[in-house]
């Protein structure tokens, strides 16, 4: 992965942000659903949700209902969560375990590998071939216990798409052992990109995150851009940081905070202390509203006191960020300015800007 990237400059020596209409125009979001969310790997769930035959997990990707399943023979599958008979959404529950998937409308049933099992109202109908009525497959892949789907059948593999991210993540050997402790969903009044922008820089940390700044050594905070990802890290400010996180750090599995963004809308955080992970998904609801899905994992069914302290610490930082991005969205929708500028240390936001422009095939 390259280390600090330079910040290419415009003629007046300052780099411009995305035009603000990109954060306030429903047509731009439509285009993003088509060109970004329908073409990129989208994180769906931790593998623990779909480990046993019959397990399933449903989600929405680019506005499409999808379902990930584990079949009888142990294979992972993903489909549009839509019945091939007359389009009814097949499964409502977010997660669970079923021997067979049954459509609630006319009772067609499907195996977990997507094949049609029975179509009661087509029994004996000449010319009806069950093999023509499987669920519609989509690409699915799991790596480091993280399950992703991609609606684009021609997309490059998950491994190739996020090679730098997975290489870095590989240093943590506890990912397979993690258990979901809680999932929190929050409606945020901002365009999804405003939240990503916020995550991708720490210029705001000394101003907006007093607790975070007192705990992590911001002088050493590093932001490294990789292929379809940005990896951030910082060590604890020795004594103060350990006190804030209430940690006996000598043997802790994680010695440094590690924060990942992967294109386009997922972030993962690993805080110093015992093995832990949180995933943060930013799913657009509309051009000015986003669903934040925060999932906290630890190695135990019930979080330990140390993990609770970590989560409370992270939630404080998240709340501070949500307040910032909702405040920013007010200005992004104002006519006051058409765009802003990047500082040299906002280079990861700049990279994200370029990726959005590339994906949408527009020059700013
Ligand atoms: S729509 Fe599903 S069985 Fe008819
Ligand atoms: Fe922040």
UniProtKB/TrEMBL annotation:
Statement: the UniProt record of this protein carries the keyword Zinc-finger: no
PROSITE patterns: RIESKE (PS51296), RING_HYDROXYL_ALPHA (PS00570)
InterPro entries: ARHD_Rieske_2Fe_2S, Rieske_2Fe-2S, Rieske_2Fe-2S_sf, Ring_hydroxy_dOase_asu_C_dom, Rng_hydr_dOase-A
Record Pfam families: Rieske, Ring_hydroxyl_A
GO molecular function, one term: dioxygenase activity
Top-level taxon of origin: Bacteria
The enzyme's E.C. designation: 1.14.13.-
UniProt domain Rieske: residue ranges: 42-149
Keyword terms: 2Fe-2S, Dioxygenase, Iron, Iron-sulfur, Metal-binding, NAD, Oxidoreductase
Segments crossing the lipid bilayer: none
Keyword Protease: no
Cofactor: Fe cation
Protein name: Aromatic ring-hydroxylating dioxygenase subunit alpha
Species this protein is from: Lentibacillus juripiscarius
């Amino acid at each position: 992965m390259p280390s600090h990237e330079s910040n290419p400059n415009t003629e007046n020596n300052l780099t411009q942000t995305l035009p603000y209409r990109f954060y306030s125009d429903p047509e731009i979001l439509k285009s993003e659903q088509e060109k970004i969310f329908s073409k990129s790997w989208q994180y769906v769930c931790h593998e623990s949700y779909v480990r046993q035959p019959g397990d399933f997990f449903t989600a929405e990707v680019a506005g499409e209902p999808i379902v990930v399943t584990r079949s009888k023979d142990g294979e992972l599958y993903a489909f549009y969560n839509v019945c091939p008979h007359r389009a009814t959404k097949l499964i409502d529950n977010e997660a669970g375990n079923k021997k067979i998937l049954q459509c609630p409308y006319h009772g067609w049933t499907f195996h977990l590998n997507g094949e049609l099992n029975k179509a009661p109202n087509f029994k004996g109908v000449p010319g009806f071939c069950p093999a023509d009525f499987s669920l519609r497959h989509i690409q699915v892949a799991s790596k480091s216990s993280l399950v992703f789907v991609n609606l684009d059948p021609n997309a490059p593999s998950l491994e190739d798409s996020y090679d730098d991210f997975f290489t870095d993540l590989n240093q943590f050997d506890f990912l397979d052992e993690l258990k979901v402790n809680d999932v929190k969903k929050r409606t945020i009044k901002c365009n999804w990109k405003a939240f990503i922008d916020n995550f991708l820089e720490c210029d705001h940390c000394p101003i907006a995150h007093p607790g975070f700044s007192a705990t992590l050594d911001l002088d050493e905070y590093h932001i490294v851009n990789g292929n379809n990802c940005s990896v951030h890290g910082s060590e604890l400010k020795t004594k103060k940081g350990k006190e804030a996180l209430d940690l006996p750090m000598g043997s802790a599995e994680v010695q440094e905070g590690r924060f990942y963004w992967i294109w386009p809308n997922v972030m993962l955080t690993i805080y110093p202390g015992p093995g832990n992970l949180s995933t943060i998904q930013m799913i657009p609801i509309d051009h000015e509203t986003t669903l934040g899905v925060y999932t906290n994992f630890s190695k135990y069914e019930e979080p330990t006191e140390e993990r609770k302290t970590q989560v409370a610490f992270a939630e404080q930082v998240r709340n501070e960020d949500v307040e910032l991005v909702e405040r920013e969205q007010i200005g992004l929708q104002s006519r006051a300015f058409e765009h802003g500028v990047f500082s040299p240390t906002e280079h990861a936001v700049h990279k994200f800007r370029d990726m959005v422009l590339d994906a949408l095939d527009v020059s700013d």
